[in-house]
Amino acid sequence: MTATPTKETIIGALRHVPGPDGQSDIVTLGLVSEIIVKDDGKVYFSLAVNPEIASGLEPMRKAAEDAAAKVEGVSSASVTLTAEQTGMNSSAASQNNGSGASAAAAPGAQEPSGLRGIAKVKTIIAVASGKGGVGKSTTAANLALAFAANGLRAGLLDADIYGPSMPRLLGLSGQQPEQADENTLLPMYAYNLPVMSMGFLVDEDTPMIWRGPMVQSALVQMMRDVAWGELDIMVVDMPPGTGDAQLTMAQQVPLAGAVIVSTPQDLALIDARKGLNMFKRVNVPLLGIIENMSYFLCPHCGGRTDIFSHGGGKVEADKLNVPFLGDIPLDIQIRETSDSGHPVVATEPLSPHTKAYRDIANAIWKSLSGGAQPSSPKIVMD
């Protein structure tokens, strides 16, 4: 009978892997992040190393991966290197960025051209918000589907490790991805859209109690250890706020730009402004602001009510000199289709809401491609 691997047995094996100093092991040096052991024997963890020597530590990473894979009961091991910034750990970085730190304090701020992309993915954009509850994930899902409906090869990465929404939004709850090979996962598909989310790898009710390095490692694996195929654009649904996930994306991949989602009221716009400033400080172009839940049209009388005020997103965009991409109403159809796993863009292709999302997607693509139009628009239905 095969023994069940535990964190303790894996740590014991890793104590035989020498660290960068050649004297102490990687466990004693504190390089090993939280170890995740799945029920099927798959093991995931990262090694936090100094970025100045990270490029020469691939043999150490491979040795750690091999050592973990040899533990009885382990079916496969996946290990990534996470570069810790000198003088500032990821938690401090996220706190500083949330409270208005100077640009020099943002670790890893680089020009996008110096970063390694995702294989076969031409363009990567982030959809973000300064706070939760503004409909960012619903917007990201419908935007990705809108890019596809406009004729582009689109994909969707759910980077919200602590609160992944895409499995439910896209009707994929309870499903798990298959492996392309020993170290690569196949994305899940909804309405012909490739999707990856932490929600596919853990139960919906399981809390993710992870420190920053493990979040970074999981994001890197979902970006680079997934067979995405040829994509014109990948939409990344970021977690709310300005923390580790945002910094990891800015440090690890050449983001073509960021879209900020906000509701119109002043409190939401204050947080949206923080999100915009964070992306500025890590040299990510700002593609614009979307005002979500912009107004409510009564389905019975047709009367309009500005529940959360109206026009604040446009005012903020003008104030910050970034494009205003458009507004999306507060509408029961969007809510019902999202909750049921049938996003409005995919299932109601002729609705005015779908047109709004497609117009915003078209505006984003035009700004990214210098005005070029997608080749052959198509409607994705299921």
What does this structure look like?
The structure is a single chain. 32% of the residues lie in helices and 19% in strands. It contains twelve helices and 15 strands. The strands form four sheets. Strands 8-9-5-10-4-11-12-15 form an eight-stranded mixed beta sheet, sandwiched between helices. The chain is elongated and about 70 Å long. The chain starts with 6 loop residues before the first helix and ends in a 13-residue tail after the last helix.
Question: Mean of residue pLDDT?
Answer: 79
Strand order of the largest sheet: 8-9-5-10-4-11-12-15
* Sheet having the most strands: 8 strands, mixed
Radius of gyration: 21 Å
Q: What structural category characterises the helix and strand content?
A: alpha/beta
Q: Strand content of the residues, in percent?
A: 15-25%
Residue ranges: pLDDT <50 for 5 or more in a row?
Answer: 84-114, 375-382
Give me the number of helical elements. 12
Fold topology:
Blueprint: H1 7-14, E1 36-37, E2 42-49, H2 58-69, E3 76-83, H3 90-98, E4 121-128, H4 136-149, E5 154-158, H5 166-169, E6 179-181, E7 184-185, E8 188-190, E9 193-197, H6 212-224, E10 231-237, H7 244-252, E11 257-262, H8 266-281, E12 286-291, E13 296-297, E14 304-305, H9 312-320, E15 324-327, H10 332-339, H11 344-347, H12 352-369
